[in-house]
Design a protein that fits this description.
Blueprint (H helix, E strand, L loop, with lengths): L2 E5 L3 E7 L6 E4 L2 E4 H12 L7 E9 L3 H4 L2 H5 L6 H9 L19 H8 L4 E9 L4 E4 L2 E4 H13 L12 H12 L12
Antiparallel strand pairs: 1-2, 2-3, 3-4, 4-5, 5-6, 6-7, 7-8
Length: 193
C-alpha cells in the first residue's frame, strides 16, 4: 500500500507498492519496478561524495488520474478503473487480511503488469539527483535526506504490509549491501540512527 511522504517541493506525495502480487512502485503519476529503484540506489551509492549526483532513469508516466485508477475502489472490489483497476481484476485484494503481504516473487508478474500499464502510460525520462546539501530529487519531487531514507526503508521493509514471510527479493538485499558499503555520506544512517 502506498504511503504519504512529505516532499519539500509538492507537500505530501504517495509512494509505494500498490498491489501485493506486483513489484511495481508508484510515485504519484510515475511508475517503476522495485528492482529498478534498487538499481538506481545501487548506482548512486557508488558515486563519490563531491557535488551534484545525477542519474537518468526511464519510468512509466500516467498523466490522467482516471487512467491511474482508484486504488481504494479496487482494493474494496467496487471500482476497477484505469491501470490499477485492471491490475486488481487479475490480482484482487486477498479475502483473508493475514494474506495481505507483499510477494517477494512479484517480479514473476512483470510481463503482465507491463502489458497492462503500457496501454495507459508513456515512457518518460526522469532524473534522480543527490545534492551536496543533503537533499535529493526524484523527477520533480524534492526530498530532504531523512525522507529520502524513508523511501529506501519502505522498499527494504516491503512497504505496508511488509514482505511475505519476511523474505526479501535479492535485489532488495543487494541494495542494502550497497548502501552499507557506500562511502557517499548521503547514505549514512539509512539503516541505523
Amino acid at each position: 500500500m502506498p504511503l504519504s511522504f512529505t516532499s519539500k517541493s509538492h507537500g505530501n506525495i504517495a509512494f509505494g507498492f500498490f498491489n501485493i502480487e506486483s513489484d511495481m512502485l508508484l510515485l504519484e503519476k510515475y511508475f517503476f519496478f522495485a528492482d529498478d529503484f534498487c538499481e538506481w540506489i545501487n548506482q548512486m551509492t557508488k558515486q563519490d561524495d563531491v557535488g551534484l549526483k545525477s542519474l537518468q532513469c526511464k519510468v512509466y508516466y500516467i498523466a490522467d488520474p482516471n487512467d491511474i485508477g482508484d486504488l481504494m475502489g479496487a482494493i474494496h472490489g467496487m471500482l476497477f478503473t484505469g491501470f490499477i483497476g485492471k491490475l486488481y481484476t487479475l490480482f484482487p485484494f486477498p479475502d483473508d487480511p493475514k494474506a495481505f503481504k507483499q510477494n517477494p516473487e512479484g517480479f514473476k508478474t512483470r510481463e503482465v503488469v507491463k502489458s497492462y500499464i503500457e496501454s495507459f502510460s508513456a515512457i518518460k525520462d526522469i532524473s534522480i539527483e543527490i545534492y551536496k546539501d543533503g537533499q535529493a530529487k526524484i523527477g520533480p519531487y524534492l526530498f530532504d535526506k531523512s525522507v529520502f531514507h524513508e523511501l529506501i526503508r519502505y522498499v527494504w521493509q516491503g512497504g505496508y504490509p511488509c514482505w511475505k514471510n519476511e523474505v526479501r527479493p535479492e535485489y532488495v538485499m543487494g541494495m542494502k549491501e550497497s548502501i552499507q558499503k557506500s562511502r557517499n555520506s548521503f547514505f549514512k544512517g539509512v539503516f541505523s540512527s
